[in-house]
Write a structure and sequence with these properties.
This protein has 120 residues and is an all-beta fold. The chain has no helices and ten strands. The strands form two sheets. Strands 3, 4, 5, 6, 7, 8, 9 and 10 form an eight-stranded antiparallel sheet that branches. Strands 1-2 form a two-stranded antiparallel ribbon.
């Protein structure tokens, strides 16, 4: 990940460098502070994020493609410009659309295991 330090903060190129690959067909790059993490997530067509829950609050929005997202017992297709909010410890899953999907997500606190090199 390319970065540049300034007196006031850090500028980064998200998507530069090696991604975290938590599941086949799912790549993510992150930047974070001590309390919040921003992730750019790319899902290949039909890539599956299996049902799971975690202590982190999670919110996100679709940038491109369509994402079929299940939160609790409700499933919806989420399109560019649409988003979702997931409270801590709520089961959720996702499937990349036929053309793949790109989403931006925020986790608070940051997810362990999802930090990419420039954000550590």
């Amino acid at each position: 990940m390319t970065s540049a330090q300034s007196d006031q903060g850090l500028w980064v190129e998200i998507g530069d460098g090696e991604p975290v690959v938590p599941f086949p067909g799912v790549e993510l790059w992150t930047i974070n502070t001590e309390t919040v993490m921003l992730a750019m997530v790319r899902l290949a067509p039909g890539a599956v994020v299996p049902s799971h829950a975690h202590e982190n609050e999670q919110t996100g929005g679709v940038v491109s493609g369509v994402l079929t997202f299940t939160i609790g017992a409700e499933t919806r297709d989420v399109s560019p410009g649409q988003g979702y909010l997931i409270p801590a410890n709520v089961e959720h899953s996702a499937v990349g659309g036929p053309d793949g999907s790109v989403v931006i997500e925020v986790f608070a606190p940051p997810r362990n295991g999802y930090r990419t090199p420039a954000s550590q």
